[in-house]
Amino acid sequence: MLDRALTQMLCPEQGGVAGVVLVTIGLYVPLTIAATEWRGRVRKRMNELDNDLGARATDMLLNYETVRFKPRQDSRIPCRLMISSPGAPAPHP
């Protein structure tokens, strides 16, 4: 493509075409680089958020399974383990 642009520049009757080609190439390269860098930043941020989401989902599932399979304990305290107030008779076993 560059050789065509140079050839067009050497022919004075078609100098306008060469100018258009050079301007097009001159704009295409920096815009492509800028778009590629922007896309890289977006992709990096997206991967970070995806990793965070995956970690949270794993933690939530592990916590759910832990609570689900934890043996249920009786919340009632046996009478013999209760502390009696001073002067009250001790409970019988």
Task: Give structural notes.
With 93 residues, the chain is mainly alpha-helical. The protein has a domain at 26-69. Helix content is 69%, strand content 0%. It is built from two helices and no strands. α1 runs antiparallel to α2 (15-69). The termini are far apart. The mean pLDDT is 76.
List the helices and strands and how they pair.
Elements: H1 2-10, H2 15-69
Helix pairs in contact: 1-2
Radius of gyration: 38 Å
Shape: rod-shaped
What portion of residues belong to β-strands? Answer: under 5%
* Class from helix and strand fractions: mainly alpha
The helix tally amounts to: 2
Largest sheet: none
- Proportion in helices: 55-70%
User: What is the mean predicted local confidence, pLDDT?
Assistant: 76
Q: Could you spell the SSE succession in H and E letters? A: HH
Q: Give the low-confidence spans.
A: none
| Terminal Cα span | 99 Å
How many distinct beta strands?
A: 0
Brief sketch in words of this structure:
It is built from two helices and no strands.
Task: Please name the defining characteristics of this protein.
2 helices, 69% helix
